[in-house]
Design a protein that fits this description.
By secondary structure, this protein is of the alpha+beta class. The protein folds into 3 domains: 127 residues, D-Maltodextrin-Binding Protein, domain 2 (3-Layer(aba) Sandwich); 102 residues, Dipeptide-binding Protein, Domain 1 (Dipeptide-binding Protein, domain 1, Alpha-Beta Complex), CATH 3.90.76.10; 214 residues, Dipeptide-binding Protein, Domain 3 (Dipeptide-binding Protein, domain 3), CATH 3.10.105.10. The strands form 4 sheets. Strands 1, 8, 9, 10, 11, 12, 13, 14, 15, 16 and 17 form an 11-stranded mixed sheet that branches. The relative contact order is 0.15.
Length: 511
């Protein structure tokens, strides 16, 4: 694929589109005969995987996290620039290691009718901090030394050390103290103070919630195959589908009179990762050659149908700690070949690379395009695809040269420690490429020890410049978040991070 010959890209995309269109066409007649009625007048939301748990202390997958946000209230939330702002509570910094949180007077009670109090907040965070609970949320909260309930509306947090980002860590949904003490099964029977409550969960593929404000029923219906999800949408069996649809199917849906397509700029970050301990990919010249061999603009145009934007860093430029002045890696295969020659590779000694990926069809499609582009720049790349468990296990263990993955829903800039600090090699973190750079470590630690947010942001920008020069990752793009909704519904606008919060507002349009 080249800029002056995009046909090879469009051909790859077209093949996938033809397959999807043929499948749609063969069953479209059945879809047009679907029954649009629904006995409980529910709004039906199609998802690709069922939630693993509805206990906010244990959510890790995207679907569970997004549904838990509807069931439980959190002390803080994030604005459009990823700054933490009050949600269930406001806070005051009483000292470098002392924060006071005051619950909103107009807060909703729990879904069982009991009021939310500061004692519930303390019990929730105490349970997360208890090592016996094995909560995956615990790591980010170990800065808490102890908590003290001042009154029913007020709780004080005392820290082990100053932490200017501390309020942004308090995003765990609040649980009732009494039920925590009784080991209530929140994973299947949630009791929270969010805008929705559980009605029934008859099977893994059918979760039924109800809006507490107006009684509107929301059904989450699991349909793993994206084409089948689209067919159910067109037949009226599903009302909304968000994300996880091939771009060509989304494009195809734009012309369907029964649905509307909504798109917002997203923050899901796609990248190519390298093993820096490998003789080939550990060479900075090779990584730079890879960066200049990839035509991101053409891939976004043809594979993603324009529904993405180029990325230069883990954090999007609109993030308060993001950087908007990083140089873009230009598409320049000739420069890639020169860099490879400097690294000692050429016709007499070609560079052979192995690219690992999962068996996900969309991932395979992308990696096949990347393979062709790297070939045109003088690199011979073999693709190795595995089931998700094997693939991800190899990535964490460092058994790879190159791979492609994404980061979803990043909010806090201290993610840089988790991803790039030399002490964050798995299982201690997600430094999967085994980066070990003294300046990177120093900047991460300096940012953590800086309390003024403006000064902290400036350090993180310097860190991103250093990472851009080292290229432990090649940033690819941020993918947009797209919603497809049946006409007759209003009030749903998709969010950049893909959350489902708008289900608290979506409604059937009045006739």
């Amino acid at each position: 694929m080249t800029t002056n010959n995009p046909f090879s890209v469009s051909l790859c995309v077209l093949c996938g589109f033809i397959k999807s269109s043929l499948l749609i066409g063969t069953v479209l007649l059945l879809a047009s005969c679907g029954d649009n009625s629904d006995q409980d007048n529910a709004i039906r939301f199609g998802i690709s995987t069922e939630p693993a748990t509805l206990d906010p202390r244990y959510v890790t997958d995207a679907v569970s996290t997004r549904i838990a946000r509807l069931l439980y209230s959190r002390l803080v939330k994030f604005d459009a620039h990823y700054r933490f702002v009050p949600s269930l509570a406001r806070w005051k910094k009483m000292g470098p290691e002392h924060y006071r949180f005051t619950l909103r007077p107009d807060r909703r009670p729990f879904s069982d009718g009991e009021p939310v109090t500061a004692a519930d907040v303390k019990a929730t965070y105490a349970s997360v901090l208890d090592p016996a609970s094995a909560s995956p949320q615990r790591t980010s909260l170990t800065v808490i030394d102890h908590m003290q309930v001042v009154d029913a509306d007020t709780i004080d947090f005392y820290l082990k050390r100053p932490d200017a980002l501390f309020p942004g860590r308090l995003t765990v949904g609040i649980l009732p103290r009494e039920l925590i003490g009784k080991n209530h099964p929140f994973n299947r029977d949630p009791v929270g103070s969010g805008p929705l409550r559980l009605v029934a969960w008859p099977d893994d593929g059918n979760l039924i919630l109800q809006r507490r404000a107006d009684g509107q029923v929301i059904r989450f219906i699991t349909v793993k195959d994206p084409t089948v999800r689209v067919l159910k949408l067109l037949s009226g069996e599903i009302d909304l589908v968000q994300g996880e649809l091939p771009a060509e199917i989304i494009d195809w849906l734009r012309d369907k009179p029964s649905v509307r397509v909504k798109r917002v700029r997203g923050d899901t970050f796609y990248y190519i990762g390298f093993n820096l301990r490998d003789p080939a990919t550990g060479d900075a010249l090779v990584r730079e050659a890879v960066a200049h061999a990839i035509d991101r603009k053409d891939i976004i145009k043809y594979l993603y149908r324009g529904m993405a934007r180029p990325a230069e860093s883990l954090l999007p430029p609109e993030h308060w700690a993001g950087s908007n002045d990083l140089p873009a890696d230009s598409y320049n295969p000739a420069l890639s070949r020169r860099l490879l020659r400097q690294a000692g590779y050429g016709p007499g000694r070609p560079l052979h690379l192995e690219f690992k990926t999962s068996t996900n069809p969309q991932s395979l499609r992308l990696v096949a395009i990347l393979q062709q582009e790297l070939h045109e720049a003088g690199m011979e790349v073999s693709i190795r695809s595995y089931d998700w468990g094997t693939f991800f296990g190899d990535i964490k263990a460092g058994r790879f040269q190159m791979y492609c993955l994404s980061w979803v829903g990043l909010k806090m800039p201290d993610v840089f420690r988790y991803v790039f600090h030399s002490k964050s090699v798995p299982p201690a973190g997600a430094n999967r490429g085994r980066l070990d750079d003294a300046l990177v470590d120093s900047l991460i630690e300096k940012a953590e020890n800086t309390q003024a947010l403006d000064a902290k942001a400036a350090i993180y920008k310097r860190l991103q410049q250093r990472l851009h020069a080292l290229r432990p990752y090649v940033p690819l793009w941020y993918q947009d978040n797209v919603l497809v909704m049946r006409r007759g519904l209003t009030g749903y606008t998709p969010a950049a991070d893909g959350n489902y919060d708008a289900l608290a507002r979506v409604r059937f349009a009045k006739p």
